[in-house]
Design brief:
Bound molecules: N-(iminomethyl)-L-glutamic acid, fe (iii) ion
Strand content: 15-25%
């Protein structure tokens, strides 16, 4: 009713007067819509050649993120919008009903503003990632870039974003720069989240916990004190197995996180460099196969975990009052999401009680 779940129970309890239209899922599986809490969908061009070279063991010659920044700056609004729309629909058809979208390939005030304006056409979960990398024109004056991000850029984007994110890692931003940028965002009313410990161990996870981040993402490297910090916080640990897959990096073992009671999410990290996929079923399969999630933990992490990472209680589950966002799988068990990798099991997708795919 009104796009929400109004009743849950067994078939024998339901009265004919309680429903109008019946959609039978006999022999199939209904799961909550996926909540994909980490994506970079506003960009132009791709980096297929870089991927191919990397897979052949060659160091990537191209400029990585800055290559995409150049392409993005040169693209029209229409091109950026069409590319983002195609990716949102791609995710939707594979069962994603809530999507987060970051900026971060503009890296100038005007290009970050337009990236977020476009992102907002698709979701309320928009994230300002001006601190993705230092753009080429600021290479010799990184502090000036940080000052711009914390000052006029933040001022311009604040009305367009719910979240602020920083790539805290080698070659990107230091823990101190990360603190400075996230604090500036918080002061402007944005909520913090961050890219932490993807490339190497570091302070990123602790910085996130210290500042009350909703989520620390990637976390390919963590130690027992990082786990302890997360366990005593309400910061979600978000794993992005597509990035390990597409960069052929070592997958982290998530079991110690679960054992410590940390809330875990998985997301696709769709971006043209390190994980060009929107497919949560594949992420579930990778999390189970490579990161030692149980199939239950993986499904929970892609739904309820993603919702916690976005501080949302209305999505990611199907209790009475939740949004009626769900998928119908062609298989008789959710186990098949990991058991049948690469097979399209998502037969129908419903959002707000309406079939959308
Ligand atoms: O989340 N880690 C930083 N940013 C992206 C990669 C972006 C790119 O390579 O274009 C990520 O993996
Ligand atoms: Fe990312």
């Amino acid at each position: 009713t009104n796009g929400k779940v109004s009743w849950v129970g067994s078939r024998s309890e339901v009265k004919a007067s309680d429903y109008q239209n019946v959609v039978s899922a006999k022999g199939k599986t209904v799961i909550p819509g996926f909540v994909d809490s980490h994506n970079h969908l506003v960009f132009a061009g791709d980096r297929a050649a870089e991927f191919s070279a990397r897979m052949q063991g060659q160091p990537s010659a191209a400029g990585g993120i800055n290559f995409t920044v150049e392409q993005t700056r040169n693209a029209s609004d229409e091109q950026l919008r069409a590319n983002a729309a195609a990716l949102v629909i791609e995710g939707l058809t594979s069962g994603t009903t809530t999507v987060e979208i970051k900026s971060g390939y503009g890296l100038s005030i005007a290009d970050e503003v337009r990236s977020l304006q476009i992102a907002r056409e698709f979701t309320d979960e928009t994230t300002f990632l001006g601190a993705h990398v230092i753009p080429l024109e600021f290479k010799s004056a990184p502090d000036d870039y940080v000052a711009m991000v914390c000052g006029p850029m933040l001022e311009a984007v604040a009305p367009l974003a719910k979240w602020i994110d920083v790539f805290c890692d080698r070659g990107a931003f230091s823990p101190d720069q990360t603190r400075q940028i996230l604090k500036a965002g918080i002061a402007k009313g944005l909520l913090p989240r961050l890219h932490a410990n993807q490339l190497e161990p570091g302070e990123g996870i602790k910085v996130g916990v210290e500042l009350g981040a909703a989520s620390v993402d990637h976390i390919s490297h963590f130690n027992s004190s990082d786990i302890a910090a997360l366990a005593s916080s309400n910061t979600v640990a978000t794993f992005l197995p597509g990035a390990e897959f597409s960069t052929r990096s070592k997958y982290p073992d998530a079991r110690p996180m679960f054992e410590a009671g940390v809330s875990v999410a998985i997301a696709s990290d769709c971006n043209p460099g390190s994980s060009y996929t929107t497919n949560l079923p594949l992420m579930i399969a990778l999390a189970v196969r490579e990161m030692f999630f149980t199939p239950e933990q993986a499904l929970w992490s892609a739904t309820k975990g993603g919702a916690l990472a976005l501080r949302r209680t209305d999505v990611g589950h199907l209790a009475v009052g939740a949004k009626a966002d769900f998928s119908i799988l062609s298989s008789n068990s959710y186990l098949h999401l990991a058991y049948r990798p690469g097979v399209n099991l998502v037969e129908q997708v419903w959002r707000n009680g309406n079939q959308v795919s």
